[in-house]
């Protein structure tokens, strides 16, 4: 999740109850009815672990705080008041999960003259049926219309960019046409963040849509950029974006820096330049790797501009993979800095099936290419849509469902107060409301045995409503139990989950947090899905896996395990019959505390990350990450038809004190990896968690990966020599049609091994801080 952490920032943490009662209307104007159900349903969200849960208001309608939305009144202060009411995590607060805010904007035109500050753990959501317009006045002044991380005059930020989690903005039009050079969104964020369904109207101005300076994300989809000078200025460690449309923008995107970025479904038309990735120049490229998949560029003189060449530095800097790009009237598809053609286009239609620049291992060798890319994967039909693109599906927002048909969990017996056992109430609620949309009001819902999700279940959380397992049922690592079971093995039907956080309360060494067995019915695709559902283990209020109990202690003997800090058996399991569409899922065993004031690093033990063993799939994962789990982050065994783009992992910071061998036994029933290390003792660089293990599998497409090992026993000395651990990807058994594009690693000696043969030394693929290969293929 992060590389550097700024310590010493203290958060008030909701200790002080707010002076004024919150939720009071500051205006007596009648509230306009809004057609979208989210604005109409009763709101009973409860911040269970807030210091003042009874009065803390989760849901805030901006009109209740005086915003007019009439296009003439300056609504900036009213909107910021709606966001900031109560004791929120603002400047000086590193993080907090107990001060959430869902800020709702009914349709209308909201005039603003200064930034709307999107504070920590906020979702800013517009009416999804009729998008509200946020209009920057001609007099607008400030970094951007929406600001996720304000800068102070001394250059400091409110939040540490790599720790700026849990942020969402969706369903807006941002109108910059009255400004000369406004910016739509300053988005400097990390995991569990999203921008979805936003249109930037920039007209004939020098405006830009997104300004992203840095962070560790992340996901965005369904954005439209029209007019203006620049659609998006992007800098971040790793990111996945999907379905961006640029129309008549001078430069669609400038990439300022990254380690890896996957762009799926770009549609760039009538622009000057599509993607400018020349930052840093040929001597010091700052863009690590870029992947453009299933995209279109038309009527644009230059598609992609790069400074990568056989002599550019770093040697794998500016790695680029183009996969299934249609161009029309793009005279130069890939250009060097002065516009000359590296990959020529034409005045007509040209299709680029597969092209790349960077280093390729297929699987042996390691050669530099800047040309048509081979070998090529066979893309299995199971993963494709009707047009031959990798299937994609935006989160359901249920705009066609009237408010009266939305079923509230809290109105139907579930408490979500972080104390009551809600297992039976939730099970009854789900069983009785098959086919309906269940609204899990914000809260923390405790589960003491398995919650079963039957076919045709739709659950949408309010601002990451939380389910937490607790008790002896989940505590025995020798007898693991599923917390949330989506379908029984072999079951078929639809399940949609969105906006949830799944947790465990320790000790929980036997908890399999989420198991997906349900499959799409024949002839349907992607009906099983989870969007913005995050597994967050430990480090937050109510988990009993916090810094008071599980604080890091690197100088102690790590083999002396504190079993109370066993946090999960496995985070997620896609079973033999499961198929699921995953989008923006952060599967995170916390490395540090989010709520207690020390924000200290913690040592907790989750045995396994995401295990995929579906026999037929399909599984799609857009913007998934799995971090800090003991035995592996991703494991694919006996599986096929899996698309992942991009994935991100981190090895636990405590390893190898203890090593991967502790505290869990290898369990063959779960296909656990056996680390056959010559040195099994503490200090072993072999006995550390693999980022991605693929065994006896086929038709596996990984489109972008950032797999990192930043620490050895909590120190970063090993980064100097990039020897924190031996291997990062392990391909085993009989694995076929395995293609991995834009693999980025940090801190490992060998990037990929195949049946223990070390094929990809990191040192020959150096790319600034990370190291990169454009393609590893085992056809
Ligand atoms: C993030 O970007 C800003 C703006 O370019 C820069 O001032 C700041 O130093 C960066 N922070 C980090 C941690 O790189
Ligand atoms: C690529 O995209 C085109 C549409 O332009 C589609 O017809 C084709 O089947 C796609 N897939 C592959 C694997 O080429
Ligand atoms: C881990 O690091 C600490 C210093 O932070 C040191 O005292 C301890 O001996 C190390 N333990 C092992 C097993 O390397």
TrEMBL record:
GO terms for molecular function: polygalacturonase activity. Residues 1-19 form the signal peptide. The keyword Iron-sulfur does not apply. InterPro entries: Pectin_lyas_fold, Pectin_lyase_fold/virulence, QRT3-like, RHGA/B-epi-like_pectate_lyase. Keywords: Signal. Residues 59-276, 407-464 form the Rhamnogalacturonase A/B/Epimerase-like pectate lyase domain. Gene3D superfamilies: Single-stranded right-handed beta-helix, Pectin lyase-like. This is Rhamnogalacturonase A/B/Epimerase-like pectate lyase domain-containing protein. It comes from Arthrobotrys oligospora (strain ATCC 24927 / CBS 115.81 / DSM 1491) (Nematode-trapping fungus).
